[in-house]
Design goal:
Shape of chain B: globular
Helix content of chain B: over 70%
Number of helices of chain A: 7
Largest sheet of chain A: 6 strands, mixed
Helix content of chain A: 25-40%
Strand content of chain B: under 5%
Distance between the termini of chain A: 37 Å
Shape of chain A: globular
Number of domains of chain B: 1
Largest sheet of chain B: none
Order of helices and strands of chain B: HHHHHHHHHH
Structural class of chain A: alpha/beta
Distance between the termini of chain B: 26 Å
Radius of gyration of chain A: 18 Å
Oligomer: heterodimer
């Protein structure tokens, strides 16, 4: 594992609408790994990801991405970001969407067909995105982030609503990308995806409860099931907080 | 600013428009039909048609581009594509210029068709050049686009965006002198009209109707262009890379 983490967050405080959404959290995401950001919906996962990508106004703290402050101009071509809601043009076809984003990113046009293949959308390449299902749209959105092969991918719930087979394939793709040196931060609220990650960040109510490998988390809690291990971690954290 | 990204954005917007032929048809046909309607509403007052026909022709692009831009930009904001673009190596100017080229082309076709109908079929006449009318119509289109972009930041739904049309466009139409000469209005309203850009758009078009393209008409054109630039700058500040 590379010594230098891809993402370093220190004392990050984010307020939205007068409420603290992230409570001075600190964390690191090791380079060339698949790091799972797990927690119930509404716990601040998306806000944390937005802060890392540099589109979130933060109150205080620092976020360093690939050695530079989050949101730096030079990072724009080096961080791929997929929002939870598929952000692609509904009135363009799959290929037209990808061609446009490829031009904006300055990527070779051949990459368009390559990423359509990666997300398993070959049969739908000519279809207008608005006529596709939610899961298919999510795949087009994911394909967009893969276009320029950025060293860091920040993916907000990329596998929601997908066919189990496709979900397995995508996690396989993530693992292959990490093996080739890409860092992936992938959020999920499904525990069975935790085992697919090299590294886990457990989040609840705007706090990071644990940063561990799946094996480390099992050892620490004495639970074999990662879902149970997460429950133990929450319980322990709450007793400590009550004290 | 990158020519590659700007042109790709313009091509993308055109492609999106092509997927919506009904909107394009309405953008192009409705102003022509309105001009015909105006001609027959004023059937008994041919002089009045000659007075308002040309200014109205130049103002249509302002209204349509305002609406089209407000809605499209709102869609970019609400579907997350704007956030995605802002996280990519795309300059705000690339996006604005891309939209400007695509919608400007539509505005040019719209103004051309309406002018063809009005000058060719309805016997509308201008003392000045038809090309100046076209130029003013284009400046109005850009102004409408810039204002549409600006208000899209203050709307969260398409319903709201559409409501900005009566709020921002109709007062300017009432005050610009098209309906009532500004000299006949109360002093306070005249002062208000003096700071609204559509007043100058109307004045320029009215001048071309009755005379040539003189320095006063040039001044009007420059005011409209300046107002469009100002609105575009304000609009650009609403394209934020970081949002709360």
């Amino acid at each position: 594992m590379a010594a230098e983490p891809a993402i370093v967050v220190r004392d990050l405080l984010v307020r939205r609408g007068g409420v603290d959404v992230l409570h001075r959290i600190s964390l690191e995401v090791p380079a060339a790994t698949v790091t799972g950001l797990l927690g119930p919906s509404g716990c601040g996962k998306s806000t944390l990801m937005r802060s890392i990508v540099g589109v979130q106004v933060v109150a205080s703290g620092t976020v360093t991405v690939l050695g530079e402050p989050a949101g730096s101009r030079s990072l724009r071509a080096r961080v791929g970001y997929v929002t939870q809601a598929p952000s692609v043009y509904g009135d363009l076809s799959v290929r037209e969407n990808l061609r446009y984003f490829a031009t904006v990113l300055g990527t070779a046009p051949e990459r368009v067909d390559a990423v359509i293949e990666t997300v398993g959308m070959n049969a739908f390449a000519g279809r207008v995105v608005g006529s596709l299902s939610g899961g298919q749209r999510a795949r087009v959105s994911l394909a967009t982030a893969l276009l320029n092969e950025p060293p860091l991918l920040v993916l907000d719930e990329p596998t929601v609503g997908l066919d189990p087979l496709l979900r397995r394939d995508l996690w396989g793709t993530f693992a292959a990308l990490a093996a080739a040196g890409t860092t992936l931060l992938v959020s999920s609220h499904v525990m069975d995806e935790a085992d697919r990650c090299n590294h886990l960040l457990l989040m609840r109510d705007g706090h990071i409860l644990a940063a561990e490998t799946p094996r480390g988390l099992r050892a620490q809690t004495g639970e074999d099931d990662l879902g149970e291990a997460f429950v133990r971690t929450i319980e322990r954290w709450e007793t400590e907080a009550a004290r | 600013m990158s020519a590659r990204i700007t042109l790709a954005t313009a091509a993308r917007v055109m492609l999106q428009l092509r997927r919506d032929p009904r909107t394009v048809a309405m953008l192009l046909v409705v102003p022509c039909l309105l001009e015909v309607l105006l001609r027959y509403v004023l059937d008994g007052q041919p002089l009045e048609f000659q007075r308002v026909g040309t200014p109205l022709l130049g103002i249509f692009p302002f209204i349509s581009m305002f609406l089209v831009t407000a809605i499209t930009m709102l869609r970019e904001r609400t579907t997350g594509t704007l956030e995605r673009l802002m996280a990519m190596p795309l300059g705000k100017l690339d996006l604005l210029a891309g939209y400007g080229i695509a919608f400007g082309a539509v505005a040019a076709v719209q103004a051309g068709l309406t002018a063809g109908v009005a000058f060719g079929l309805l016997d509308l006449q201008v003392a000045g050049s038809e090309w100046v009318v076209a130029g003013l119509a284009m400046a109005n289109a850009v102004l409408g686009m810039a204002l549409g972009l600006f208000v899209s930041a203050f709307a969260t739904t398409e319903f709201q965006a559409v409501q900005f049309m009566p709020a921002i466009v109709i007062p300017q139409l009432l005050l610009c002198g098209l309906l009532v000469p500004r000299d006949d209005m109360a002093g306070a309203l005249q002062a208000l009209a003096d700071v609204l850009p559509l007043t100058y758009a109307y004045d320029g078009l009215a001048r071309v109707t009755t005379g040539g393209f003189d320095s006063a008409a040039l001044r009007d054109l420059l005011v409209v262009a300046g107002a469009a630039l100002l609105a575009l700058t304000l609009g650009a500040t609403t394209l934020r890379r970081r949002t709360p």
